[in-house]
Automatic annotation (TrEMBL):
This is NADPH:quinone reductase. It comes from the Bacteria. Residues 11-326 form the Enoyl reductase (ER) domain. The keyword rRNA processing does not apply. SMART domains: PKS_ER (SM00829). It holds the Pfam family ADH_N. Keywords: NADP, Oxidoreductase. Gene3D superfamilies: Medium-chain alcohol dehydrogenases, catalytic domain, NAD(P)-binding Rossmann-like Domain.
């Protein structure tokens, strides 16, 4: 019997329940994993609350990321063997699969080998964050050595990965955070500059940092009316990439006459993880950075699987810097 986290109604962390149930054998294209660690994401909270872009079907499970060992293989999974240490890349719908459990079924296409030097806890903190940041900062060619990159919500796991990837490609990461409490931790994490938005004027500080030029790319998960403030700090010809919707209010398109010419677009890592060729390139990029030591996932705190509700409460409190990981004892 496996231990699986499920919920039967929308709500807060209290709706999450650990249940014992049969997982079964993997079907065609599937893999059964023994899970050793699970990465938590803001998407998990939004899905549990019913405000994600897909709605749960009850009883529902959740979770995009995990690391562990291959237990069984379905037909047509040729790139893995039983016993392989692996990690799960977010590339499926939460209505079909989930990683919150000690034994789970997942699509083989999103299971990637885990380097021998990377333990399960670290591997569970990698793929959502680094593939999300990889797209705009490394894949598209928008960011060049010497460019300034604004990273909002920089204390998140994606923000931390973006800081490291920006440095890896030779760019200058400018981190934005609401309060001064996280300033030093962001500097220690590699940010070249930190802007505390509760205390400082964001466009003015960007102007000081960049000598009046503005940032080449702004990478924002918040959305909402704040994008107009961000747009005032972007260099002519630069880009605003919105990859989340933490602010539920309407996100306006920056008015053409109010700002320099810039490109604005939305983005999600699923653009990469559901495209086999782009995913292959992303995995190669991230694994190379891990091997070189350029990428080191920041893990704020770990919880046990039985503490899953407490882990969600900690995530929602927004006091963490980096990733929250749930470990699984066997």
């Amino acid at each position: 019997m496996a231990r699986i986290v499920q919920f039967d109604r929308l709500g807060g962390p209290e709706v999450l329940t650990v249940r014992e149930m049969e997982v079964g054998d993997p079907g065609p294209g599937e893999v059964r994993l023994r899970v050793d660690a699970i990465g938590l994401n803001r998407a998990d909270v939004m899905y549990r609350e019913g405000v994600y872009f897909v709605r749960p079907r009850f009883p529902a499970t959740l979770g995009y990321e995990a690391a562990g060992v291959v237990e069984a293989l379905g037909e047509d999974v040729g790139h893995l063997r039983v016993g392989d240490p692996v990690a799960v890349v977010p590339g499926f719908s939460l209505t079909e699969y989930g990683t919150y459990g000690d034994h789970v079924l997942v699509p083989g296409a999103v299971v990637v080998p885990r380097p021998a030097t990377v333990d399960a806890t670290t591997a569970a903190a990698v793929w959502m964050a680094y593939v999300t940041a990889y797209g705009p900062l490394a894949e598209t060619g928008e960011v060049r050595p010497g460019d300034h990159v604004l990273i909002t919500a920089a204390s998140s796991s994606v923000g931390q990965a973006a800081i490291q990837i920006a440095r890896h490609v030779g760019a200058v990461p400018v981190a934005a955070t609401r309060t001064a409490a996280k300033r030093q931790r962001l500097l220690d994490a590699g940010a070249a500059h930190v802007i505390v938005t509760d205390d400082e004027d964001l466009p003015a500080r960007i102007g000081e940092i960049t000598g009046g030029e503005g940032v080449r790319l702004a990478f924002d998960p918040v959305a909402g009316p704040g994008v107009e403030t961000i747009a005032r700090g972007i260099a002519p010809g630069g880009s605003l990439v919105v990859y989340g919707a933490l602010d539920p209010r309407t996100t306006p398109l920056p008015r053409a006459r109010s700002y320099p010419a810039l490109s604005t677009r939305t983005y999600t890592l699923h653009e990469i993880t559901t495209d086999p060729q782009r995913l292959r390139r992303a995995v190669a990029f991230v694994n190379a950075g891990l091997a070189l030591g350029s990428f080191t996932p920041v893990i704020d705190r770990t919880f046990d699987l039985g503490e899953i509700a407490d882990a969600h409460r900690y995530l929602e409190a927004n006091g963490h810097v980096g990733k929250i990981v749930v470990t699984v004892a066997h």
